[in-house]
Each structure stands twice: as structure tokens, then as C-alpha cells.
């Protein structure tokens, strides 16, 4: 029998530094002082769990999983669970902090949390993924719950993962607890509209951003990095808005055409082949070229840190709408700003997912379900309101959209702390 020992954590990039820098900038603008920064920079609770896995071939691997609850001053923790080979504690801490700001910015009654397992799901069978999910859920079960912390899908997880998490948690409680996770299948209490919600929200604010810089969405051009749950829907909704999507990529490669990709045909192709690579409706390009394509709008919708000082100067898009969390490093932000590129920050641009997760949680807690049209309408209304509020704040205070959004969110979280009692 083979036993694999846990791999050491990766340390090459640290998105936590970027998240803490953004917080420090907001605390300075708000004049809240170093004590508040120290308090808000530190996650309230974090757990690291060991996940022993019996593989289908009989060998044993021991994986590492995390759940970080960054803040719960405004309500239960909320945030996705990621299955990815790059997951480490600092990444989860950063993602949890961004969830706090995102929920506060969109005024959903949650704090921020995030979880992950350090595993590449592509190398595991469905049965193995189920065992990983169930053991991970059992280990974090004391910390989660509809009033405590509510996980959802993220990179490498999906509605099936959420169904397993809900089932495992419910078995432990002796009854079905629909509200413990969101992003579930419709058949077990999921919400209509959740699957496309992050992408719909990205496109709603991206279209506003294009108009803001004087570009009509109809006939504008775009490139999308990542063709998963967020990127694929973003490409589809952009096409529906009349935007020509010229280039898309996934982890295996990229495809480009100057006329605009037929997104419906591309989706059908990906359903069969599992990748955008070799799509006959376009020409292959290098994955990184998607980020520097000659387009009006760039939607990075894959992973963190893809736009860095090494390539930020070559970004030709006029607007970058962050479908992913943290795709632009803090240093690259400055380069883009100096070059006149408008960045719509992640905590605004990709907040549609958690907004509809909130709607799902409300529906599950009331056992009363809304129509898809109701969900979509309420989502877009919230996204546009948030866009207008952030734009107004940024304009009034001469801040970037990211700093404006972070200030608005940090202030709301700080006020919740203040009224509850700051340093007990
Ligand atoms: N799902 C959600 O509701 C939300 C997600 N987000 C954020 O959006 C981002 C994407 O999440 P999601 O779509 O759910 O994840 P998925 O796992 O569904 O999709 C990720 C996609 O990114 C691709 N990818 C990974 N690395 C690269 C790379 N280096 N270059 C190009 N493509 C790459 C993957 O390729 P392949 O398919 O080949 O593996 C896949 O197409 C993450 O940052 C996530 O945190 C934010 C808010 C909500
Ligand atoms: O839907 C949710 O609860 C969280 C989604 C998420 O992880 C994110 O917005 O980054």
C-alpha cells in the first residue's frame, strides 16, 4: 500500500499581502488608525484540517483543507470552497477577507469566510472527490451552519460538491439543513439563477463601466480568461449584450478570432471536449495573449495574480472587470491606473454570486421559492445600485474604484464593530 505524505505549502505568491495592503489603504483614507487595521487584518477564526483519503487504487493520501472566518460582525461567515493544487492558508485568508468586504459592499447580512482543499480535482475520480468533500465537511462541521458560516462553490467545486456538503452536515444533525450551503442543485433547495449569477453580475457592471468610459456595449469587444463557472457565463451574457468576445482561454489554451467567437457554438464544443482548445471557430493563441488582446473589455475569470507588473503594461483593454478574486496584483493596479485602464474591482464585479447565494439562503430558510426572473431582476438591481454607489464615492473622494469600494465596505464593517463594542 502507498501512503502519500502531505506536501509542504506553496509560498511563491502571497495574495494576503495584497489584501492587507488594500485594507491598510482604506483604513488610512477613513482615518481609522492602526488598531482598527490590526483588528480587521486578522481572521477571527481559522481551522486547518487533515483529510486522509483512500484512493480508488487502494493507496492512501493525506490532504490538507482550511476554513477561515475572517469576520462575522455583520452576520454569519459566507464564502466559497476551493479545490485547487495551489490552495494554502494565506490564500484562503485573503479570499476570506475579500468576502467580508464583498458582503458589506453589497449589503448582504454576512461576514466573510472561505475554505479550500489543496488538491487538483482533475486528478481524482468522482467517488474520490465525494470522499474528500465528505471528510472535509465533517472536519469543519463544528464551525459551519446556516447561522454560523455558509459555504458555496468556488474554483474546482460545483453544485454536486455542495449537495455532498449539505448531506454530510445534515446527517450529523439528524435532519436536512438546506441553509448550510448555497449553490446547491435546484432539486435540494438551490435557487434558480444561482448558476449564472456571478457572470450576470460581472456583465451588468462591465456594461456600466464601458458606458462610463464612453464605449457603447453594442459592438464593443472583449476577452475572457477562464471558461469555468464564471468565465463561460460572462462570455455568454456579454454576447447577449451585443459585445463581440474575441478571445477566451482555459488552463489548457486559448482561442481567438477578430470577428467575435460564436459563444453558443463554443459552449457546445466545450461540453463535448472539455476545453476551448482547438475550437474550429477561431485560431489558437497563447493563453497569456488573452490578457493583452486588443479589446475594449478584459474579464479575468480564473485565478489570482494573473495581471502583474510583468504584463500590466501590455494590457490594451480600456476596462478590466475582475470576474476572479484578486486577478490584478496591487503593483499591477498602479500600472493599469497610470495607463488609464479602469479596473472594476472583484468585490464589486463578481459579487453577483454571493448576492444570489443570499437569495438562496433566504428562500431555503423560508421554504418559499422565487422565479428565475425575480432572482435575475433583484440581482441586477443590486449590482447596478452598488456600481452607482461606488462610482459616486470614488468620484467624490478622487479614489480608484477599488479603494472606494474597499473604503465603503470597511466603514460598514467597522461601524458594526463599533456599535457592538470595539475592544471588549
Ligand atoms: N463560482 C462563483 O460563484 C464565484 C467565483 N469567483 C471567482 O471566479 C474565479 C473563477 O471561479 P469559477 O469560475 O467558479 O472556477 P471554475 O473552477 O469553475 O473555473 C475556473 C476556470 O479557470 C480556468 N483556469 C485556471 N487557471 C487558468 C489559467 N492560468 N489561465 C486560464 N484559465 C485558467 C480553468 O480552466 P480548466 O477548465 O481548463 O480547468 C477554468 O476554466 C475564481 O477567482 C473565483 O474565486 C468569484 C465570485 C463567485
Ligand atoms: O456564493 C457565495 O457564498 C460565495 C461566492 C464566493 O466564494 C465569492 O464570491 O468569491
UniProtKB/TrEMBL annotation:
Sequence ranges assigned to domain Glutamate/phenylalanine/leucine/valine/L-tryptophan dehydrogenase C-terminal in this UniProt record? 191-421
* SMART domains assigned to the protein according to its UniProt record, in alphabetical order: ELFV_dehydrog (SM00839)
A Gene Ontology biological process term:
L-glutamate catabolic process
Keywords of the record? NAD, Nucleotide-binding, Oxidoreductase
Could you say which residues are annotated as the site Important for catalysis?
Answer: 154
Gene Ontology molecular functions: glutamate dehydrogenase (NAD+) activity; nucleotide binding
**Pfam family of the protein (one):** ELFV_dehydrog
- Write down the SUPFAM superfamilies for this protein, in alphabetical order: Aminoacid dehydrogenase-like, N-terminal domain (SSF53223), NAD(P)-binding Rossmann-fold domains (SSF51735)
- List positions binding NAD(+): 198
Q: Where does substrate bind?
A: 78, 102, 357
Recorded hits in Gene3D superfamilies, A to Z, give: Leucine Dehydrogenase, chain A, domain 1, NAD(P)-binding Rossmann-like Domain
The reply on keyword NAD is yes
Residue positions of the active site: 114 (proton donor)
Taxonomically, the superkingdom here is Bacteria
Q: Which family does it belong to?
A: Belongs to the Glu/Leu/Phe/Val dehydrogenases family.
Its recorded name reads: Glutamate dehydrogenase
Native species: Nocardioides albus
